[in-house]
Amino acid sequence: MADLVPPLTAATCVTALLAGLAADLSWEIWARLITPQLPGVGGPLEPEALIRSVFGFSSKPLAEAIHAVVGVVFYPLGYLFIARPLQRIVLQSLPWWLTGAGFGVGLWIFALFVMAHLVAGLPAFLGFIPLTWASLGGHILFGFVTAFVVRWREKRTG
Asked: Exposed (0-12), middle (13-18) or buried (19+): which is 158, by Cβ within 10 Å?
């Protein structure tokens, strides 16, 4: 089991932080610049609106901060200590990029089924409107970038 998860060292924390920063920046570019250009979507992805409805507060800056902290800190740790070890147990030969994409799909399910539907009471996956699919693309990108940076850092740091 010890070889399934990285040691909790300063280098691992830096790797997680760099992966989170890169993935969150990629998400933001996708959500705010690319998504509004997609046919039928009609605007940017606004995860802070979901966060406000889940937690029942009105502060957009607070919701943006929560989304940023979760994306930069907690999701990359989830990749390193949960998603990738599970992949290594279940599908050892899965390439890193598919593991990352699968992680992104998992984040999308968490956001649009668990949080939006089960917690906030919205339709499951927002009723599969075009925004739903734009969100899926953004989450897959997030997972891919997370996995890429982790792989890059581990090659550099040994």
From this structure: exposed
What separation in angstroms does the CA of 88 have from each of 36, 70, 96, 112?
36, 24, 10, 26
What's the pLDDT tens digit per position in 47-63? Answer: 998 899 888 889 999 99
What's the confidence (pLDDT) of residue 151?
A: 95
Tokens of 97: 């990029």
- Amino acid in the structure at residue 157: T
Return the domain boundaries, the chain: 10-157
Q: Which whole-number Å values give the CA distances from 45 to 36, 116, 131, 157, in the listed order?
A: 8, 14, 7, 35
CA 99 to chain centre: 13
Q: Which residues contact 60 (CB under 8 A, 6 or more apart)?
A: 48, 52
> What's the one-letter identity of residue 50?
L
- Say if residues 23 and 142 touch (Cβ distance below 8 Å): yes
Got the DSSP string for 70-136?
Answer: IIIIIHHHHIIIIIHHHHHHH-TT--HHHHHHHHHHHHHHIIIIIIIIIIT-PPGGGGG-HHHHHHH
